[in-house]
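re: that complex we talked abt at group meeting.

here r the seqs, copy pasted straight from the sheet so there may be weird spacing, ignore it
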Amino acid sequence: MEAYFIAIGIIALIYVILSLGLTLQYGLTGLINFGHVGFFAIGAYTSALLALKGVPLVLSFAAAAALAGLAAWPLGLVSLRLRDDYFAIVTLGFSEVVRIVITSEGWLTNGVQGLPGIPRLYEGLGGSAAQLAVLVTVLAVTLVGTWIIRRIAGSPFGRLIEAIRDNEEAVQALGKDPARFKIQVLVVGAALAGIAGAFYAHYITYIVPDQFIPLVTFYVWMAIIMGGVGRVSGAIVGTAILMLFLEGSRFLRDIVPGVSEVDMASVRIGAVGLLLVLFIMYRPQGLMGDYTKR
Amino acid sequence: MTHTRRQFVGTIGAATALIGAPSILRAQAQGTFRIGALCPVTGSGSPFGSGMQKMIIAAAEAVNAAGGAAGRKIETISEDTQTSPQAAVLAAKKLIDVNKVQAVLGTWSSGVSLAVVPLTNDANIILMNTSGAPALSVPPANAKGLSYRFQATNDRFGRAFAEICEREGFRRPATMAFNNASGVGNTEGFRKAWEAKGHKVVESVVYEPNQPTYRSELQKVLAANPDVIVTGSYLADTTIIMREWYQSGQPVKWVMPGWAASPELVKAVGPDVVEGIISVDSVSNENALSYKAYDEAYRKATGQPGQSNVYAAMTWDMVHALALAIEAANGTDMAAINAKIREVSNPAGQQVYTYAEAKEALKKGKINFEGASSVLDFDQYGDVTPDFGVFFIEGGQLNRRYVVKI
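got the structure back, here u go
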């Protein structure tokens, strides 16, 4: 039982790290990033490929963050002239481009066959101790990430990006250049997604382009919307609710009688959908949402 | 809003406790051998997944009706992979850690099997899959020799395609593949085997999934003027490709895997469009008594003929091979069971077809279980080498002309 909770915990925390990046980008700055999974994929593949070549994991994680962050840079430059909705389209396109490049460049990424046998973190510890160590590490990174985002949100920089979200023209009128700040926000969020990707690759130990579909991006969106957009605590709580819905529904069969084992799978997916709809109907601003401002 | 945040969190906490509790209470039951049925009930594997899961349950019932294995009943716990590696990993974790299963059966897509196999290896339990990717045969995936594959590898499919093209006298084959491990595996396997025979492939196209149209890919292939197109495709994309090819009017033959050129395809596009298509599939061991038992169970569970789901025949065999190995090992020690799987399935020994019969024969000596999906003989990698049936679609019917052995 513990090992299962540890597994859920690790996956949930990986999604929290992704949500933190998106909270910074959308929640605070108002950048509609529909391509989050692209940076996640870049991080996963960077770290996996380096680790398979024998590079120490500390370095491969750093490279994953760096490369994912760097990938956001040109995207930021290109997209600065675009308003919200167009930016959303470009980022969605970007993540699909990343996936298709990974699929096509078989010499590097092994294409659709994927990369099996990615080394795990703390392989030496073995078994459940290693799992626990992974959980603690992801938790530590999540806490540091949360702390950083909270610091950013509370700083003058944070007020500035919130101002960009609320009224970009006003920010310009005050003599600030929103473009620079948007790029910085994009890069930081992408680097976080890269780290999440590296954890994912080394935890699942097998990655293939099919895993990096836009659904992942939208899971993260669901999480921050349910948690409360613009709140750092919302990223964490929202992910927890999403995982509770997704994983908790596996135990439906224990409490719902009269449904066959096979039908249960579909009932489960339906129940998750229903819960999501009900949740948004009754808590439209998210669980931790800011009910004072809007 | 009348609800407070605290109340809400409280409710969620209570709900978690409620759904978590019964399974903890159930976790330890004596005298059973637990297996996990981890099938693609939803997602792209859904046309096969529910049948596969039903056949695991049905086969376990057959085993239990014959008195179980090594004095224990087989208990099945089902989970859905959603045909997604991430969902499958969590589902497998639950099966292994919460339900304490001692074998995981029925993973379908290669991506899922490759993601689940590290977990079953860690837990030192058996994984039985129906995936095609070659990587599953060798370390790191099969480092412990605990993984068994009941489906022909994509490589073997490719070799069978090449045999058929040679036999049918085709000279200028082109390939079209769905861009995933299995699709590309089929056409690459074909290309390797075909070039080894000293021929050339005139054009190869790999296409992206979930497109509304495949016209440009099709035009590119047809421009090379092939006499046959070999595909590594699935039902949904093949349906679109067939319609668009028919509209183009260019005559060409097709060789396709059986999961694409199936009765559903005929139903979807009409018999005129698919007339003459060659459909290749690993032959179920149709004349064996084991197939008859499987077919009966499948009809009873789904109302469809057993032939419509080759993977379900494989999962039926999984339970049989595993239960016989448990019986032969006379206990639940996983290393002992694993050592017996080849012994009860491979030749030398009395040929047996049903569990009850096999269990009796096992008392007298060595047995060779002949499955419903194939004769079920595992090589050193845990792979089976089934024969391939070559079906021609004629007047809307799939008629088997001959069988290719590789």
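couple things i noticed - The two ends of chain A are 42 Å apart (CA to CA). Chain A has a mean pLDDT of 90.
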